[in-house]
Amino acid sequence: MKNKLLLLLSTPNGDFETHLFIARLERYFKQSKKNSPLLLFASLVLFSHQLYLESPLWPLIAWQCLLVLFTAIIYCIDHQQQSSAIIECHYKILRKRLFYRLVYGLIVAALFGASTFLIPTDAPFDHLAIYYIFLICLFAIILISNVIFPEYYFGYGFVVITLVYLHTLSQTGSHSEGFIIIASLVYPIGAIIMTIKATEMSKRAINEVALGLILKKQMTEMLELQQVIKYQSEHDQLTGLANRRKFENCAYDVENNAKSKQVSFGIVYIDLDKFKPINDKYGHAYGDKVLQEMAERLNKCSRDTDLVCRMGGDEFCILIKDVDGTQHLEQQSFAIEQRLKQSFIVEDVNFNLSASIGTAIYPEDGLTVDELVSHADHNMYRNKQQKLTVVPSG
């Protein structure tokens, strides 16, 4: 990002720099909103001090009213810039709003600095020094809390320190020339030192924000990668169905739930008839497309709560939760068989497949997943021996 230090001159280039720009804005407005009560409190302290020094009342009241007004405006601006509003805006609009926020902030700084000229010329030196120190400390607080927005504290400090310095020069009649000379040296040197240190603080703060974004991005990518790895480890690459590992994990959970709640669940085991000749005659590319078609049909004739799995080769299994009984399971397996036997075309080749299906229901056919799978597999092979298969034609 060009001119990375200065927020108003930053031009985001790419997603990361845009996120960094937005993150700096979010941090600035969040902290700036907290500073508004501090500015009001500081103005009341200075107002009370000026009353004690018997400063002109009406100019002092006007000063206080203006300060309260602009501080309230700043608070409203900061309050409106919520995170959602920042994200939805284009960075050029945000930069324009930030510029207006800077202008109002500098007006407040000018009011604080100009308050020194309301102090009576015969004010004791110790009270004058306390007033100066208070303004400088206020600037230091503004600097630290707005370190992410260098333009603001640079401008704030320049305005306040310059006005304090000018007020010091105006006190030539009250103080010795030596004091004026010392002040003329201290203020610029102090301003230079504070600028250097503040710049270092800003760079560190910006780097912290950038590092936070990088870590967040890396964590997000890591979580996404873990999800991809988990998905791939639990799903068949060809059909997208759950694999044997996913089936076993879910089936054991369903088994435990059925035992604790005393409900039934069923297993439908499916084997495509005469699938091997398809690979031998037309090639594995055709065979893969046939498997994908069968997988899609199984998904469509299953409920969202059912788990359709490819166990390997041309064998599939459906884990059916909340089965009402053996008749319900047989009806569903019959519907699956009718759906699979419908003809379809793969690259001008017509296929008419059948499938052998075996079922098992908990707890009638077994008390564990392994027993149910074995029972369903046995029924499936028994049906395969009894039925007449249909060879695909092309």
Global Rg:
39 Å
The shape is rod-shaped
Query: What is the CA–CA distance across the termini?
Result: 63 Å
Pattern of helices and strands: HHHHHHHHEHHEEHEEEH
Number of DSSP-assigned strands:
6
Major sheet summary line: 4 strands, antiparallel
| Number of separate helices | 12
| Helix fraction bin | 55-70%
Q: Major sheet: order of its strands?
A: 2-3-1-6
Quaternary organisation: single chain
Strand content: 5-15%
As for the number of domains, it is 2
Low-pLDDT residue spans: 389-394
Mean pLDDT: 84
Structural class: alpha+beta
Task: Explain how this protein is built.
The chain has a 4-stranded antiparallel beta sheet with strand order 2-3-1-6, sandwiched between helices. A two-stranded antiparallel sheet has the order 4-5. Strand 2 (307-312) and strand 3 (315-321) form a beta hairpin. The protein folds into 2 domains: 15-222; 244-386, 2-Layer Sandwich (Alpha-Beta Plaits), CATH 3.30.70. It is rod-shaped. The chain has 394 residues and is an alpha+beta fold. Helix 1 packs antiparallel against helix 5, helix 2 runs antiparallel to helix 4 (91-114) and helix 4 (91-114) runs parallel beside helix 6. The model is unreliable at 389-394 (pLDDT under 50). It has helices at 15-52, 57-80, 83-88, 91-114, 125-145, 150-170, 177-234, 244-261, 276-282, 284-300, 326-340, 369-386, and strands at 265-272, 307-312, 315-321, 344-346, 349-351, 355-361.
